[in-house]
Design goal:
The protein is of the alpha/beta class. 35% of the residues lie in helices and 20% in strands. Helix 6 packs antiparallel against helix 14, helix 9 packs across helix 10 and helix 10 (255-268) runs parallel beside helix 14. Helix 6 links the parallel strand 5 (139-143) and strand 6. The chain has an 8-stranded mixed β-sheet with strand order 8-11-12-7-13-14-15-16, sandwiched between helices. The chain has a 6-stranded parallel β-sheet with strand order 3-2-1-4-5-6. Strands 10-9-17 form a 3-stranded mixed β-sheet, with no helix packed on it. It binds 6-O-phosphono-beta-D-glucopyranose (BG6). Residues 145, 213, 232-233, 344 line the site of 6-O-phosphono-beta-D-glucopyranose.
């Protein structure tokens, strides 16, 4: 793919940890043609040589590889930039035009904003007014989260961006859409005759999505205090997984058709507001505790966090989708920091059979479950009941497992690598459309409006636990419980 990639925020963490290594992997696999150039843009002064060295260092530390690294790094250039100053954009423009000519890039440009979100709008406006978007080839804007802080700020940002780029030139990153098993949801659903007929409220009792982390807020206290788990994880990643699980089969696998079906899910999501929020959503904040045998501090004792912070580091909720397929089926979602384990899993629980003829050693028969393991393991498990060897009428649970990692872990590209490649090819399917963003902010804003008005009795869960008790009660009152994520691991395919 011939293009000039400008990375704004090139000295930042994301560029070093994800973008440079991903570009290198694309290069190594022959997915970047010889005709590409990268301009690193950031405030601090650096020479090209220094920048190239930092690119090499980050590739080596992320991948431990250095084959053809000098050749790769020679495509990288640096521009020390002031985001509010037109003359700085003029210099960048001259540099871009020269590189365009030198590498025969056909005027194709990708602008990647991997920096503090407060500058997103300003940069987009300058790119247009200073002529950087005035090109013969394609122009695309890749933009990291957070896309706004609420619906109003997201709209404002979108308007600024749209003065310089059309909707189909904007690639809003949700890195969960780069994950192999998130992309697999559609294939599992739409390429198997055995699931789709059951994928509705007649056969599914509830769906649970858990994304738990063991890490705390780390060095990001300043950002996190303004965000919390609701905005940081639920508005984007969790709601995207809900949409993929709930969408209707698209007519074709095109970007527009897939996005249209996802948007229809967002439109059908039941808004919860006012006092009702407490019936549907639970928030939590971690106190101190033990993780992997180590004592860890409470959220309120983390750097750059208010000692009386009311910010949630955990959220659990019930999402209802009021359409024909899903009426009455709760989608339970939960995510949080400093939980027992790092894991993202989807559990689809099927309804009980109408009459139970078998017993599982004095227990009720286990319901059938389809578990989609997003990370750290990648795979699917189907929980069935089968006859217990030697038993008479006893049934036992058996699991059919497919672990992606066993098959092609070494070749599974990193999420960012896939997203960058998609963007270069002009495939926006796995990026979020403005309509999805807007609906999802609208949903989340109603929850935060209620939460911001009242203080919760934080901290209300211990680090190393699976969240506050209220998150369990949320399901208990519907007659369900959270399937324990650690018991569902893909490798554990013995019957219990
Ligand atoms: C990011 C959030 O979007 O996702 C982080 O800002 C969170 O707070 C991260 O840690 C989780 O991503 P992953 O891929 O590790 O599940």
């Amino acid at each position: 793919m011939t293009s000039l990639i400008m990375i704004f925020g090139a000295t930042g963490d994301l560029a070093k940890r994800k973008l440079f290594p991903s570009l290198y992997r694309l290069f190594e696999r022959g997915r970047l043609s010889e005709q590409f150039a990268v301009v690193g843009v950031a405030r601090r002064p650096l020479s090209n040589d220094e920048f190239q060295q930092s690119v090499k260092d980050s590739v080596q530390s992320a991948l431990g590889k250095d084959e053809r690294i000098d050749e790769f790094a020679s495509h990288f250039y640096y521009h020390s930039h002031d985001v509010t100053n037109s003359s700085s954009y003029q210099t960048l423009k001259t540099m871009a035009n020269e590189l365009d000519e030198h590498y025969h890039l056909g005027g194709n440009r990708i602008f990647y904003l991997a920096m503090a979100p407060e500058f997103f709008g300003t940069i987009a406006l300058h790119l247009k007014s200073d002529g950087l978007t005035d090109v013969k080839g394609f122009k695309r804007l890749v933009i990291e989260k957070p896309f706004g802080h609420d619906l109003a700020s997201a709209k404002e940002l979108n308007e600024q961006i749209r003065t310089a780029f059309s909707e189909d030139e904007v690639y809003r990153i949700d890195h969960y859409l780069g994950k192999e098993m998130v992309r697999n949801i559609e294939v599992i659903r739409f390429a198997n005759a055995i699931f789709e007929p059951l994928w509705n409220n007649r056969y599914i009792s509830n769906i649970q999505i858990t994304s738990s982390e063991t890490l705390g807020v780390e060095e990001r206290g300043r950002y996190y205090e303004t965000s919390g788990a609701l905005r940081d994880m639920l508005q984007n990643h969790m709601m995207q997984m809900v949409a993929l699980l709930a969408m209707e089969p698209p007519i074709k696998l095109t970007t527009d058709e897939i996005r249209a079906e996802k948007v229809r899910v967002f439109r059908a999501v039941r808004n919860v507001e006012g006092e009702d929020v407490h019936n549907y959503f639970v928030r939590g904040q971690y106190g101190e505790g033990t993780i992997d045998g180590k004592q860890v501090p409470a959220y309120r004792d983390e750097p750059m966090v208010d000692k009386e912070s009311n910010t949630e580091t955990f959220v659990a909720g019930k999402v209802m989708i009021d359409n024909f397929r899903w009426a009455g089926v709760p989608f339970y979602i939960r995510t949080g920091k400093r939980m027992t384990t790092k894991s993202t899993k989807i559990v689809v629980q099927f309804k009980d059979i109408p009459m139970n003829l078998y017993y599982q050693t004095e227990k009720e028969l286990n319901p059938n479950l389809l578990v989609i393991h997003i990370q750290p393991e990648e795979g699917i498990t189907l929980h069935l009941n089968a006859k217990k060897a030697g038993g008479h009428l006893d049934a036992q649970e058996v699991k059919l497992s497919f672990a992606n990692s066993g098959v092609n872990a070494m070749n599974t590209p990193e999420g960012y690598e896939k997203l960058l490649y998609d963007c270069m090819r002009g495939d926006a399917t796995n990026f979020t459309h403005w309509d999805e963003v807007a609906y999802s902010w609208n949903f989340v804003d109603k929850i935060s409006a209620v939460w911001e008005k009242s203080k919760e009795n934080f901290p209300n869960y211990e680090s190393g636990s699976m969240g506050p008790k209220a998150a369990d009660e949320l399901l208990e009152k519907d007659g369900f419980f959270w399937w324990p994520v650690t018991d569902l691991d893909v490798d554990n395919c013995q019957g219990k």
